[in-house]
TrEMBL record:
One of its GO terms (molecular function) is peptidoglycan lytic transglycosylase activity. PANTHER family: MEMBRANE-BOUND LYTIC MUREIN TRANSGLYCOSYLASE B. InterPro entries: Lysozyme-like_dom_sf, Lytic_transglycosylase_MltB, MltB-like, SLT_2, TAT_signal. PROSITE patterns: TAT. GO terms for biological process: peptidoglycan catabolic process. It comes from Roseateles depolymerans. This is Lytic transglycosylase.
Amino acid sequence: MTLRRRTLLGASWAAALPSLAALPLVATAATAGKKKPLKLRPAAQAPAFGERADLMQFADQQAAALGYDPQALKTLLAQARVQASVQRLILPGAPGQAKDWGAYRQRFIEPQRLQAGLGFWATYEADLARAEATYGVPAQIIAAIIGVETFYGRIMGGYRVLDALTTLAFDYPSPLPPGARDRSGYFREELRQFLILARENGLDPLSMKGSYAGAMGWGQFMPGSWRRFAVDFDRDGHIDLIDSPVDAIGSVAHFLREHGWKPGLPTHYSVQPPVDTAARAQLLVSDVLPQLDVNQFLAAGADLSQEGLSHVGPLALIELQMGGAAPVYVAGTQNFYTVTRYNQSSYYAMAVIEFASTLASWRKAGQSGAASTAVGQPDQQAR
């Protein structure tokens, strides 16, 4: 669901100065000894798709199923604009680049976001409690997802959703780098879902904003997930994930329950992986999907915590790389896997889980300073 932003920082003013010549400024020549003020030239708009044949064919083929007049749908889609930055951002990082759980963790589990989380929990305490009672998902997990996704509504994306989805549906990057796959089919279906969502709810598809992948609102729901899992939790008669944090709270909890969240089940246990490389690789083969029981972990040479030894049901060995340091391992349960259905990354799931734990600790303590160790370096053995 959600999806991340990247920031490029200039190394120095000296390095940045040459680029000033490329800024879209037009200086008029001095006349009669007087200088006219600099005029800003508006940045060029991204090119519109226009009446491109494949897009118009899509409109003709899908209009009836989507509930649109064919010509109206063509006119709408022709206004979508190709977004080169979307094409760049959707691609994975360079192959061979080491992942670093410690760095990833620090992006989210930091004082400002946690303080915002405390304020969010205080404001929506009754709604979070009602969502927990209704769907069985702990309030801190719901609050953590919204905090990690959008910093509690502060960062919900600035792309027109129509532009992002049309770009990824019809101009997915090509050729693809090694390890990447063409996901244009997925985004074409999300474009369909977005068009239906807009029509069903009387929304203007040309004004809706979201992430570079087309995710929207406080919880960054993709259009298909909005239509399947969003709920009217504030009971005002319509679902609004953009302007109703209460609807977002209920919808996040409903999404997790529908993806297998089990009330009362831990998300993971501490584990020491097998020393033997082949045995460890065998436990890692299922990635985040729990498929092995406690006895299989023990037979491979893993050392589970006391709580883990008492677990009934499948587990998955989760490896979180730490750059050049030794990786961190946990034994993930069904609930860990469920969090990865929101965003298919073990690093994301662990960030949500640790953010939730830290947020709950801060709330219990009643003040943030008591938790300074929680926002420093990650534990070498996660809880």
